[in-house]
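Morning F.,

Quick status update on the modeling queue. The single chain you submitted on Monday has been processed. Sequence for confirmation:
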Amino acid sequence: MTRNTALAATLALPLLVAACGTPQERCISRNTSEYRTVSGLLAEVEGNLARGYAWEERQVVRDRLTQCRTYLRDEDGRAVVAYEPCWRDYVDTERYRVPIDPAAEQRKRDNLAARQAVLGNRAASVVQACQAAFPEDNG
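Structure tokens below.
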């Protein structure tokens, strides 16, 4: 499987500046999102195969002791802020390992690589079309 790193670099740049990019960058970003998605999935599957397991995430609610503000009145009726310890719930994201089926991951990798090759050809032509439609002054 060959990788076209120049194409990947060209397609990754618009992702970084999609919200505030030039018309050319927005055109490229809008028309190459599926290629970038498939490339990301392929990289994840290749990482899983290299490690021998996948990563998944789950949200876990934990208690933490913290300081809470309490509003009290003094003898004269004025509001006074007091701090006292209290327990609060926090949501943490936790990564954990998940076993993989290497044969299934290899089939997934092969399918994603084939899809990436097809989309890569389309993405290259889209980049050229966007560059032609929205030329940028580099001077």
